[in-house]
Design brief:
This protein has 137 residues and is α+β, with helices and mostly antiparallel strands. The protein has one domain. The chain contains 4 helices and 5 strands, in the order ββββαβααα. It has helices at residues 42-47, 67-90, 113-121, 124-136, and strands spanning 3-9, 14-20, 23-30, 33-38, 53-58. It has a 5-stranded antiparallel beta sheet with strand order 1-2-3-4-5. α3 crosses α4 (124-136). The longest helix has 24 residues, at 67-90. It is globular. Mean pLDDT is 76; it is low at 106-111.
C-alpha cells in the first residue's frame, strides 16, 4: 500500500492527513485515545457515518505524542488494512475468513488482524502468517 502523509503535527490533538493508495486517511490523537480512518470520507468513517477502515485505541497522554510516534501508529494501521485487504481478496465474494467463512467486516476498535481473526474464527495467527508470507513473495 502506498502511504502519503500530507500533514502531520500539532498537540491536543495530534492530527495527520494524507492518502493510502489514493484514498484519504485521517489520524487524530487526543486526551486518552487515538483514532485512524481510511475512506473517501475519513472523518465520516471515524464518526461511523461512512464505510471504510477504522481503528482506535486508548493511549495515555495521546494528545502529546510525537510526530514519530504518530507515524508508527499510522504505519501499523496501514499495514493492518493491507493484511485485511489481502484476506478479503482470498474470498472476494463474501469478505469472509478464507478458511472458516466467518465475516471479517466490522469496526473492531483497537485490535490487530490476528486478534480480529482469533475472535471471529480462532485461526488468526495461522492465517495472518500465511498472508504475510504471500505478500513477501
Amino acid at each position: 500500500m502506498n502511504l502519503v502523509i500530507e500533514h502531520i503535527g500539532g498537540y491536543c490533538p495530534v492530527q495527520a492527513e494524507g492518502t493510502v493508495d489514493g484514498v484519504p486517511f485521517y489520524f487524530r490523537a487526543r486526551h486518552q485515545r487515538w483514532q485512524f480512518a481510511i475512506g473517501y470520507d475519513p472523518v465520516g468513517v471515524l464518526l461511523g457515518w461512512a464505510e471504510g477502515f477504522y481503528r482506535q485505541a486508548p493511549l495515555v497522554h495521546a494528545g502529546w505524542i510525537s510526530v514519530e510516534e504518530a507515524k508508527i501508529i499510522i504505519e501499523a494501521c496501514v499495514h493492518e488494512c493491507h493484511i485485511i485487504s489481502k484476506l478479503r481478496e482470498l474470498d472476494t465474494h463474501t469478505q469472509n475468513c478464507p478458511q472458516c467463512k466467518k465475516a471479517l467486516s466490522g469496526r473492531c476498535a483497537g485490535t490487530t488482524i490476528e486478534t480480529i481473526l482469533e475472535q471471529r474464527c480462532g485461526q488468526g495467527k495461522q492465517i495472518a502468517r500465511e498472508v504475510l508470507k504471500e505478500n513477501e513473495r
